[in-house]
Model the fold of this input.
Amino acid sequence: MDWTLFGWAGIQIELPTSWEISGINGDEKNGYLRLDDDEMPRLELKWAKSRKKKPDLHKTLDEYFKLVRKNYKRGGNVSFRRNIDLIKDEDYLKECTVLGFSWKGGIRANGLIIHNPETKRITIIQVMGRLKENWRPTVLRIFKSISDRGDPELTVWSAYGLRLAVPNSYKLERQKLLSGYLLFAFTRGRNRKISVERYGPAEVLLNEYSPEENQLETWFRTRYAKAIRGYGFEVTLHNENGDERITFVGQQTRLYDNVPLSPVLIFDKIFKRTRLVFYMWRCHHTNRIYVVQAIGRSDASKKLAQEVAESIYCH
Done:
């Protein structure tokens, strides 16, 4: 079984690569996520901020059990157990309050409810398996890998083989998880944005354009015509490990750009221009196109886009 690091909303865990997102709602403060394999639901993750220093985890678990009974009663009666010592390690999540639980119906599950006083978050995670399946080693590996750090430098986000990391000061604004298109868009304040997009299959998308010109650049200029309108760009093309890569670094153009007057320069310093940076590449191994876009009012946008692009391993 192959494993990968999965991240969402500041929570990181190791998961089998065959498990993929099948349901999601909420935001970074309160949300729900489910992952399935080809056969059945495999993992549920639920998180919520709590204002209480010592929240009643048993009460929260009671409410969660009601949802479990509602969602999984089809296989028969569901029986529950709590206060199960799943991880026999005194140092395991020692800064947190942790309760183990299990339930059994048409399928069975082991889970944890965790309160982290540093993040002020209550997290419920449960791993599900068939009744006669020996999935305990999988459960233990997943639970031992859980990380919910209070102030990480970077936050990891994952979906369908795409994994990226952004500074924790950037918050997820929206996402799209479609078969041929993935989007993660983040914001910081009013003027700073970073987004990551993945398109596929690249061969189909680029074959619409003449091979006599740079197909990747032509596709980009067509696809992002509206986004780049009003900007002047410096374009750099290069290859890395056989993959075509293009960098667009630009800034907002203004009507007075050709006016050589010092008052204009003063105005320009006061009202800084918007910087727009694109890092994009075609991965031949996976037959996909990746586009990282950063918007801001300083040259830091270029560094941010580059760092996020470098966090992505396309193959």
